């Protein structure tokens, strides 16, 4: 008679950090709470601190890890040990072994019986250099299509994105805390679920389950983003509790069924709308790639099953890709910026006068040494300003150069300020001039590396315990760099929606935007099913280009639809000027695009507006 194995209950995974700047008391509060939690996960890394810390590490100015994780762990670790809570942290940045040593010493100093593990293998500069030398792989920037061998910068560091099976292996081997360098943002959640339900033993049997865990991870990886943080419907939140927004749980069953909820007795909310916005954040289209699995998400659906509880359905999975993402950092040069204030009338003319005078002050010899020299005005003056402060516009000069001396006091700050006595009326510069001093910035080359090149390994603090090699997947799916892109499906004549009113698009449309390298994605969705035909018919690629205005300069744009989310998604290629570290705009993270488009006027059906504004 066959033995029946009773599946384990759903695992409860709580994310307590989505960024280095997230609330540092979240881990301690979660560990002290009486609310059940099996695994704590957190992300302290991004394309902002990875390149910057790799540069600082190369200069001997940092141990490489993210200190904010240490600050969060120290007051929490005793309760973590006492309650038997597991922890997987994406916090090593470019100094994972150094962070591991800190955590081992922390546990030892508190006499805690904890097994600490760290995942090695994300640092791949050696493999990149070997492949280039031997010609075994062409590293092509998947945004610009430039080959790495033609990149005019010298690589300092290369770091790839690992999956979650190393974390699962560490937990299965007895680890209590797993320190990672660069696993993909959702990988700690995959790792937790794969350990709990033992999918790690034969992952090729569980692609659907792994894919659903991947999307659960995507939903909670940014902490409170799926609980009301960064939500375009923020005005509907309970404002008495918005200063204590709850962190999200993913409850993942043995069959991959996922419920998203949040900590009890906290602010914020978990609804299909908050989950839709987070799903649309930083994706690239129909397929969501991870080193462990590829999730197909175009049929994803969210259902409210109870207050602050949302079920995910419609996600399927296939074998992982043969490649994973790799980010290659180089020292790009130096940058500096300086700000003036324009007040009142004639802003455009004041800007023109200032730029003419500054260019003369800098002189051609100085200007030739800059790779970037941009003078922009940001903001506008309202008609009949309510006070003096409301009619101030920021004017910003930003410059970049490979030479630090080109941005020295005498070569940047002084010529930028020497015009003040001959300048526009009420000429005033912002007095904090620290930004006018040269600061290093990094260039970031985004490509793909074969998983077979990786040397992933898990190490343990237990004396004599052998390290474990994590093999690359034996079964893979083909990887098409071009996501499906198509025009509106069966578009409806917009006239059938009746009378229209010219009003901001965001009165009836939610949106979320984000970055991946220099790509920017933006997704839009409506509140009611009968508005879906209008949105998908209205929001063509041509319409987005029209709404982008001067910000559209010929970028390639992909478009696809999420019919069960009533959402249209766009991927705007190479929109962000080389990515977060080298970017000279205000929108370094790609988040502004959605709010910019939402404020643009459009002909909205009156009957939808009559339902009230978002």
Automatic annotation (TrEMBL):
Give the source species: Coleophoma cylindrospora
Q: Which residues form the Acyclic terpene utilisation N-terminal domain?
A: 11-460
Residue ranges annotated for the AtuA-like ferredoxin-fold domain, each copy included: 504-600
Q: Name one Pfam family in it.
A: AtuA
Question: This protein is called what?
Answer: DUF1446-domain-containing protein
Cross-referenced InterPro entries: AtuA-like_ferredoxin_dom, AtuA_N
């Amino acid at each position: 008679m066959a033995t029946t194995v009773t599946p384990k209950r759903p695992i409860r995974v709580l994310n307590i950090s989505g960024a280095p700047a997230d609330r540092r008391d979240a881990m301690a509060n979660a560990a002290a709470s009486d609310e059940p939690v099996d695994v704590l996960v957190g992300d302290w890394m991004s394309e902002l601190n990875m390149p910057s810390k790799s540069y600082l590490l190369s200069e001997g100015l940092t141990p490489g890890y993210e200190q904010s994780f240490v600050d969060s762990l120290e007051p929490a670790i005793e309760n973590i040990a006492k309650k038997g809570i597991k922890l997987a942290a994406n916090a090593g940045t470019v100094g994972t072994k150094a962070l591991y040593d800190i955590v081992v010493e922390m546990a030892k100093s508190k006499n805690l019986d904890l097994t600490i593990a760290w995942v090695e293998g994300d640092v791949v500069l050696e493999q990149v250099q070997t492949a280039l030398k031997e010609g075994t792989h062409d590293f092509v920037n998947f945004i610009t299509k430039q080959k790495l061998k033609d990149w005019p910068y010298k690589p300092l560091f290369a770091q790839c994105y690992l999956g979650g099976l190393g974390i699962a292996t560490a937990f299965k081997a007895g680890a209590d805390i797993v320190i990672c360098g660069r696993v993909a943002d959702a990988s700690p959640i995959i790792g937790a679920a794969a350990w709990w339900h033992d999918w790690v033993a034969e992952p090729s049997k569980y692609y659907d389950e792994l894919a659903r865990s991947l999307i659960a991870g995507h939903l909670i990886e940014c902490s409170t983003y799926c609980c009301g943080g960064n939500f375009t419907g923020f005005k509907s939140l309970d404002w008495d509790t918005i200063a204590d927004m709850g962190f999200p749980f993913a409850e993942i069953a043995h069959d991959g069924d996922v419920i998203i909820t949040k900590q009890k007795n906290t602010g914020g909310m978990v609804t299909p709308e908050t989950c839709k916005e987070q799903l649309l954040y930083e994706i690239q289209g129909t397929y969501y790639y991870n080193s462990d699995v590829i999730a197909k998400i175009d049929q994803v659906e969210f259902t409210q099953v109870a207050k602050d509880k949302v079920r995910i359905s419609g996600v399927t999975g296939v074998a992982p890709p043969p490649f994973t993402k790799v980010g290659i950092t180089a020292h790009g040069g130096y940058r500096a910026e300086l700000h003036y204030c324009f007040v009142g009338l004639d802003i455009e003319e004041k800007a023109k006068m200032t730029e003419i005078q500054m260019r003369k002050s800098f002189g051609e010899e100085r200007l030739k040494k800059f790779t970037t020299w941009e003078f922009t005005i940001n903001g506008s003056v309202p008609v009949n300003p309510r006070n003096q402060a409301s009619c101030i516009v920021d004017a910003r000069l930003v410059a970049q150069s490979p030479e630090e001396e080109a941005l020295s006091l005498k070569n940047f700050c002084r010529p930028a300020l020497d015009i003040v006595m001959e300048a526009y009326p009420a000429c005033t510069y912002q007095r904090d001039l620290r930004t006018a001093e040269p600061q290093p910035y990094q260039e970031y080359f985004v490509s793909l590396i074969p998983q077979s090149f990786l040397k992933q390994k898990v190490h343990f603090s237990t004396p004599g315990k052998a390290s474990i090699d994590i093999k690359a997947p034996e079964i893979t799916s083909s990887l098409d760099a071009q996501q499906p892109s198509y025009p509106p499906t069966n578009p409806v004549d917009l006239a059938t929606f009746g009378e229209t009113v010219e009003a901001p698009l965001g009165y009836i449309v939610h949106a979320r935007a984000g970055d991946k390298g220099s790509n920017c994605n933006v997704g839009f969705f409506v509140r009611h099913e009968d508005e879906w035909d209008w949105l998908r018919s209205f929001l063509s690629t041509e319409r987005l280009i029209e709404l982008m205005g001067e910000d559209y300069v010929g970028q390639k744009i992909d478009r696809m639809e999420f019919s069960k989310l009533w959402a249209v998604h766009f991927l705007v290629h190479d929109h962000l000027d080389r990515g977060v570290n080298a970017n000279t705009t205000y929108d370094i993270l790609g988040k502004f695009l959605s709010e910019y488009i939402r404020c643009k006027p459009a002909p909205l059906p009156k009957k939808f507006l009559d339902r009230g504004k978002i």
